[in-house]
Amino acid sequence: MIAAMLCGLALHACSAQVCSAQTAPRQPGTPSATQPAASGKHVPKTSRTLSPDDGLAVISAALDSKVRRYSGHDCSHLVHAIYERVGFPYAYADSDDLYDGVAGFLRVKHPQPGDLVVWRGHAGIVVRPSRHVFFSFLSAGPGIENYEAPYWVGRGHPRFYRYIKNDPCPGCNAASATLPRTPDAK
User: Fold this and answer.
1) Which of 13, 66, 139, 141 is the most exposed place for a label (fewest CB within 10 A)?
2) Whose CA is closest to 125, among 186, 63, 59?
3) What is the residue extent of each domain of the chain?
4) Residues of the chain with pLDDT under 70
5) Predicted confidence (pLDDT) per residue in 47-64, tens digit
6) The domain 2-14+37-167 belongs to what CATH superfamily?
C-alpha cells in the first residue's frame, strides 16, 4: 500500500513540476520583490520553497518504518523530527504556533506533498493533496488520515505551510532530531 502511494506521489510530482510554485498572494503595498511569510516578515523572491522532489523526500521519511514505531511526544514533535531528519530544520513550534505561522514557512492555499497541514492543536504532513491525505501522530500512533474526514472538518479549516529552504533558522539544532537521519538525506 505504501509503495503504491509513493508511486502515485511520484506521478503527482512529475505533473506538479510543470506548474509554478504556489505561494501566498502578495499583500497590497508590499514590494514585488518579496512575499509575505507565515511569520509576517517578507521573504526575498530568491528564497526557495520545497520542490516537489523535496516534498517526496519528506513523505518518504514520514512513511519510513522507523517513524511508524515513533513513540515520541505528539504530532508537532513528530513533524519537527521528520523535517530535521530530511535536512530541513526549523526551530521547534507547537501546533498552535504553527497554525499562527512561524519563521521558515510560507502559507499556501494549495498544498503539495510534504507541506504542513495544521489546525489549532494538531499538525501533520500532506501526503497526497488530491485525496486530502496527511500523515501525523494519531490516537493509535503515527499514521495516515483524510483531512476532509468528519473529525478533521469538525476541527475547522486547516492551514497549509511550505518550508522555505534558505530561510535562516535561529534556534535550530539539527542534532536534536529524535529520528535518525537517513544517509541519502539532503
Assistant:
1) 139
2) 59
3) 2-14+37-167
4) 1-47, 67-72, 167-186
5) 589 999 999 999 999 988
6) endopeptidase domain like (from Nostoc punctiforme) (3.90.1720.10)
